[in-house]
Structure to design on (204 residues):
């Protein structure tokens, strides 16, 4: 699982460098002749988006040392709103739901879907918006054919890069603790995960 997370973070770091270079190009004092200047720094408003990424997690059996690692891809959609509350400070609320095929290759442990409702606080850097996020997290787990819903919390950090007046690229890392659930076995199982995603947001 560690190698999986490291690989995902490395990939996102590379994307961030490339996206950062493009975002930096958006800040132009005076547009060249024949070139349309792209406005940056206007993050207020409602937006919708879609994202893809990877998830690595662990099912832990309570009162034992039994841990089952899972990993896989995920894809989802999100809906959110941003509003500026002070000079350079942007607050927001976002909800998302994602499908995932994260599972263990040997044991019958898997996660079928995840969701969250989170607050965000960010710094308006013009063409980019670094932010922190935290809130409620839910996930649909499956163990040996038994399906249950986990409810817990999530925390993470990300950055958005403006690529047009109403389009941004969103890079995000989140850690989630989905809490304990009774699957009908001797002990409850808890679920935690790391997720790295890249998304595209469209602002209204």
């Amino acid at each position: 699982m560690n190698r999986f997370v490291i690989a995902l973070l490395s990939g996102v770091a590379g994307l961030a460098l490339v996206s950062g270079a493009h975002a930096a190009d958006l800040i132009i004092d005076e547009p060249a002749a024949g070139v349309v200047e792209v406005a940056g720094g206007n993050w207020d408003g409602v937006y919708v988006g879609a994202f893809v990424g990877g998830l690595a997690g662990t099912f832990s059996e309570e009162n034992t040392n039994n841990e089952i690692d899972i990993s896989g891809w995920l894809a989802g959609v999100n809906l959110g709103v941003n509003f500026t509350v002070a000079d350079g400070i942007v607050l927001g609320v976002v909800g998302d739901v994602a499908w995932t095929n994260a599972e263990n290759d040997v044991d019958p442990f898997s996660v079928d879907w995840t969701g969250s409702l989170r607050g965000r606080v960010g710094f308006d850097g013009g063409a980019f918006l670094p932010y922190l996020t935290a809130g409620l997290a839910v996930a649909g787990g499956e163990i040996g054919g038994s399906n249950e819903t986990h409810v817990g919390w999530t925390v993470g950090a990300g950055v958005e890069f403006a690529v047009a007046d109403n389009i941004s690229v969103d890079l995000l890392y989140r850690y989630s603790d989905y809490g304990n659930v009774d699957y009908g076995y001797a002990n409850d199982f808890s679920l935690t995960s790391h997720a790295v995603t890249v998304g595209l947001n469209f602002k209204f």
